[in-house]
Design brief:
alpha+beta, three-stranded antiparallel β-sheet, 2 domains, four-stranded mixed β-sheet, 33% helix, single chain, 10 helices
Length: 284
């Protein structure tokens, strides 16, 4: 049964007001936030990690272990090993050119592009191990397909990514909200959904975007096999939708609130990208 609480808005301002109201909901003192958010440029898209999306190519140069995703949740050795291959190739080349990578660990030391030496439990339900989280987060944030889904503590950040360049076929954009309490409560472990956080000291984009990740081990989010709501809540997940025609207005409002590419990707490249976006909005 689909337990997503879907809410439709017709105007960008009320859409933002609906999202910001979530920040005021009650939360336990121990929690950083009650909700986490993800923006999607097409409301029809499911919460599918990039490693499982139809047509995703996993791996780069190591042809023996590369594979093409068929769009299904595969907890198999070949799927997991292809994911590991892609991440290891990313880390090795990054290290070769002098970029910071997470601390050395057994996975990077033992990986062999010609002969798997890291065991035969790759790809099963307990994959990936916590020892790989930081490496996976770094790779995910730079475009390597993984099982992680990008989320943020800030609904306005999610709205920015939802509104940026929706595909031509999209009719609505969406911001997903997931109830953190439902993930963390004692009986939630059986759902296989885990919050993944990593240090932001070496990743200015992740810090600026107030980013974190969800690891959905059993695919319950994108298969609509959602866990029950927290007490007093209507649903574990909510989807806030807005017509694509309101995307430009939404971007203008977010810009006024200081939510733009320059602030979310603090670099010279981010500044130039934002200036180019502002120039395009003036044309419209």
């Amino acid at each position: 049964m689909d337990r997503v609480d879907e809410r439709d808005y017709q105007h960008a301002l009320e859409f933002l007001e609906g999202l910001r109201a979530l920040l005021l909901e009650d939360k336990a003192p121990e929690m950083i936030a009650r909700h986490i958010f993800r923006g999607q440029r097409d409301a029809s898209w499911k919460l599918i990690p990039s490693a499982f999306r139809l047509g995703t190519i996993l791996g780069y140069e190591s042809q023996q272990f590369c594979r093409l995703s068929d769009g299904t949740l595969k907890q198999t050795w070949d799927q997991g090993n292809a994911e590991l291959t892609a991440v290891m190739e990313f880390l090795q080349l990054a290290d070769k050119v002098g970029l910071y990578i997470p601390a050395d660990h057994k996975w990077l030391r033992q990986w062999n592009p010609f002969n798997n030496r890291v065991g035969h439990d790759i790809g099963i339900e307990n994959w990936p191990p916590q020892g790989l989280y930081e490496a996976l987060a770094l790779a995910q944030h730079h475009g390597v397909p993984t099982r992680l889904l990008d989320f943020t503590y800030d609904p306005l950040v999610a709205a920015f990514f939802a509104a940026e360049n929706p595909p031509m076929e999209a009719r609505r954009i969406a911001v997903w909200s997931v109830d953190v309490e439902a993930i963390l409560r004692p009986n939630a472990a059986g759902h296989g959904i885990e919050i993944v956080t990593v240090s932001k000291s070496q990743n200015s984009n992740l810090a600026a975007q107030k980013g974190l990740f969800l690891l959905d081990r059993r695919g319950v989010l994108w298969q609509n096999d959602l866990p029950g709501a927290s007490p007093g809540q209507q649903g574990f997940a909510r989807k806030y939708c807005l017509p694509v025609s309101e995307s430009a207005t939404l971007q203008i409002l977010l810009n006024r609130l200081g939510v733009d590419r320059a602030h979310l990707m603090p670099s010279f490249d981010g500044v130039v990208k934002e200036l180019e976006a502002r120039r395009e909005r003036l044309k419209g």
